[in-house]
Write a structure and sequence with these properties.
Layout: E1 9-14, H1 22-35, E2 41-46, H2 48-51, H3 58-75, E3 82-86, H4 92-103, H5 106-110, H6 113-119, H7 128-142, E4 148-150, H8 156-173, E5 182-184, H9 219-227, H10 247-260, H11 264-271, H12 276-302, H13 305-334
Helix pairs in contact: 3-12, 4-7, 4-13, 7-8, 9-12, 10-12
The structure holds adenosine monophosphate and tryptophan.
């Protein structure tokens, strides 16, 4: 339950580290689009400061950030209805993150599975930024007093930590200042899996391009990747129970259902009994119909970077009307001398 004193506001972010995938689209962006409307104020962010917690070539980071902005807009984020920003343009994110570095505990960060996965065996050599990444993420959310955060399943632990940080801050300083944010992990595709291995998440950082569908892939590439997607040898079941222990089949059916906007049961009524050789072309047609127009729009938008930069400048201006007063209030609460 969100404390009633907070107006409903949505915040979410995506890292500009490589191309957007179908996982990002179904697990996050499509839902960002749906949340635009009278019910919420919506703020969506390209988290460039988070991306650099692992090495990024400066030239690639710049390009990926603009491409991500184009991907948001091409997928239906309206820069008038939503505030669309680049994290580094709104300095209050990083300023609040410092305060949260002093609220959060080392033990909390050590439990984060994303840190363990990304740091790998040699965690002593990981950047300090990668370690305290979740404190910056909590700051992204709480500098807006955001009440709802749509994300994929993999971000659940970070959102729990955000709630812990908000609660500890409120408790330590004896205030009711930060909301206890609600994660919004919904939809049929909160965890889209790799096309090469149904037990691994589809990820922009997977070395195999065949493991994912990128939002910039053209129709032929999308169809090829689906045709080559790993499957088992059985036909498709008519009931969801028949997908148990069949991770690749489950994944393709989930993707189909999410693209079609239909429940799994309904999809299986239609496709139950078919072989993958019959099902895959249907899935490819559906994916191409939804994604090809997005890919075309991304290309068009990225051909004019000045327009993208203008949208981001405007977004940052609007964002700072919210973030500046909140940071001032935080400084006051913790005992900084007023300027
Ligand atoms: P990232 O690409 O890690 O910055 O993720 C951006 C957003 O996309 C987050 O909300 C993730 O949870 C979501 N996301 C990333 N990969 C997937 C996936 N394979 N399935 C579902 N959601 C995903
Ligand atoms: N950590 C998120 C990811 O990797 C990206 C992110 C950064 C984010 N700040 C956020 C998501 C704030 C939601 C809210 O996907």
């Amino acid at each position: 339950m969100i404390q009633p004193s907070f107006a409903p506001r949505v915040f979410s972010g995506i890292q500009p580290s490589g191309e957007l995938t179908l996982g990002n689209y179904l697990g996050a962006i499509k839902r960002f689009v749906d949340m635009q409307g009278p019910e919420f104020e919506t703020v969506y962010c390209m988290v460039d400061l988070h991306a650099m917690t692992v090495w990024q070539e400066p030239h690639d980071l710049l390009k990926s950030t603009r491409e991500l902005c184009a991907g948001f807009i091409a997928s239906g984020i309206d820069p008038e209805r939503s505030i669309l920003i680049c994290q580094s343009h709104v300095p209050e994110h990083a300023q609040l993150a410092w305060i949260f570095n002093c609220v959060a505990r080392v033990g909390w960060m050590q439990r984060m599975t994303q840190f363990k996965d990304k740091a790998g065996k040699n965690s002593q050599r990981a950047s300090l930024g990668l370690f305290c990444y979740p404190a910056l993420m909590a700051a992204d959310i709480l500098i807006y007093h955001a009440t709802h955060v749509p994300v994929g399943e993999d971000q659940k632990q970070h959102l729990e930590l955000t709630r812990d940080i908000a609660a500890k801050f409120n408790h330590d300083y004896g205030v009711e200042f930060f909301p206890i944010t609600e994660p919004v992990i919904e939809g049929l595709a909160t965890r889209v899996m790799s096309l090469r291995d149904g037990t691994k998440k589809m990820s922009k950082s997977d070395p195999s391009d065949m493991s994912r569908i990128n939002l910039t892939d053209n129709s032929d590439t999308i169809a090829l990747k689906i045709r080559k997607a790993r499957t088992d040898t059985q036909s498709l079941p008519s009931e969801p129970d028949g997908l148990k222990e069949r991770p690749e089949a489950q994944n393709l059916v989930n993707i189909y259902a999410a693209l079609a906007g239909q429940p799994i049961e309904k999809v299986l009524e239609e496709i139950g009994g078919k072989q993958f050789s019959e099902f895959k072309p249907l899935l490819a047609d559906l994916a191409v119909a939804e994604l090809a127009p997005i890919s075309t729009k991304i290309k068009k938008l990225t051909s004019d970077t000045s327009e993208i930069d203008r949208i981001l400048r405007r977004g940052a201006e609007r964002a700072r009307h919210i973030t500046h007063p909140i940071l001032e209030r935080v400084y006051q609460i913790v005992g900084m001398v007023p300027k």
